[in-house]
Amino acid sequence: MDLNSSPSSNTIPVVSTFASPFESPSPPLNNDGNSTSSGRKPISLWPGMYHSPVTNALWEARSSIFERLLDPPKDAPPQSELLTKTPSQSRTTILYGFSSDFILREQYRDPWNEVRIGKLLEDLDALAGTISVKHCSDDDSTTRPLLLVTASVDKIVLKKPISVNIDLKIVGSVVWVGHSSIEIQLEVTESTEGGSDVSDSMALTANFIFVARDSKTGKAAPVNRLSPETAREKFLFERAEERNKLRKRKRGGDRKEFENGGVNRLETLLAEGRIFCDMPALADRDSILLRDTRLENSLICQPQQRNIHGRIFGGFLMHRAFELAFSTAYAFAGMVPCFLEVDHVDFLRPVDVGDFLRLKSCILYTELENPDHPLINVEVVAHVTRPELRSSEVSNTFYFTFTVRPEAKAMKNGLRIRSVVPATEEEARCILERMDAEALQRHDQVNLQ
């Protein structure tokens, strides 16, 4: 399978979402918010319309599928027979015409004339959700559709900065299915002239895992089978199968090989923190306590941020977590950070409209072996807080890795990135668990190559 080639019927152009004042007005609405000229609700009133132009384009292109999800048939039976589909049937491409659409370009521009990564994370989740719906659809209006939710993000890796002045393309398809889970692989490429090698234009890769639930019972529901056709599709299926096995082993606690000398490592980490707490005048000036790197923000989740199922859009959560992580790395380094990757993210509990969401960030640790390419590891934890119940639950934990921009480092010649030390045993354990997870991932990646 070549993710960068797709049928034209599955290519969705993205356009800016600001309407021209010279366009004809929308048809009048009745009391239910529906257009009086047809039975279809205007796209502008569908869920998720205020996320990004991509969501709007996806709704428009797949309205026949999504309308069933918005208003599922009551008391309809579940899908009676699983279908076998190919990756090409779910493959979808979205195109950003940045070079010709000035307004779209402005909607995605960051202060450094690159694409805003937070908005791109939203778009990736939206596209992955569309692809999962396409794969699971049985095209039968008499059956009830499945409830599909983002279970986890396996990894998102930025391979190079993405200019906002160059046309961009995201191509994705289902690469693997289990009993009730689906893995979608997405590739972001920049348009290149002269027919250069695809790998030269690759900017970002991402893998999303969705799970299917019966929309009536809420229990796990089987999904349509996948039949890879090409050598590339079969290769991606096998790789995804291996990743699924690794995830199961990790959940089973298969990490002992990276826990050598756990107590000694814990004590070593805590030793410097005790000096900060007990003898601050003697502490290492090139280090900082983890608690002194913390930032936090909070929000009430609004209806405009909901997805097709009425829950808060997973891409929105990633967007907000990224913005806080970026700010945390910026304030810590004293230089503009450069995003590298999002590590595995689990969506532990759904976030609903009206929930009080608190996002808390910190620098977990830094890797300073390469002075020209320091790594800053940021943790963001999302809590759903219910003051009336005096409860607070973790909905997501995000791990972002940043470095610093070369031009920023040149301007700050002599400024060093500090080491981070824990003040408590709990902080030390969090750092060690994250380091071990990173080591385990590197080990797994070598085995998968």
3D architecture notes:
The structure is a single chain. This protein is of the alpha+beta class and 449 residues long. It has helices spanning 53-61, 63-70, 87-90, 102-108, 117-136, 198-201, 231-251, 262-278, 314-333, 406-411, 425-448, and strands at 11-14, 84-85, 92-96, 146-158, 168-177, 181-190, 202-214, 225-226, 287-289, 295-300, 337-342, 345-346, 356-367, 375-386, 391-404, 419-421. Strands 1, 3, 4, 5, 6, 7, 10, 11, 12, 13, 14 and 15 form a 12-stranded mixed beta sheet that branches. A hairpin with a 3-residue loop joins strand 5 (168-177) and strand 6 (181-190). Helix 8 (262-278) crosses helix 11.
Assembly status: single chain
Shape: globular
Return the string of H and E elements: EHHEHEHHEEEHEEHHEEHEEEEEHEH
Query: What is the terminal separation in angstroms?
Result: 18 Å
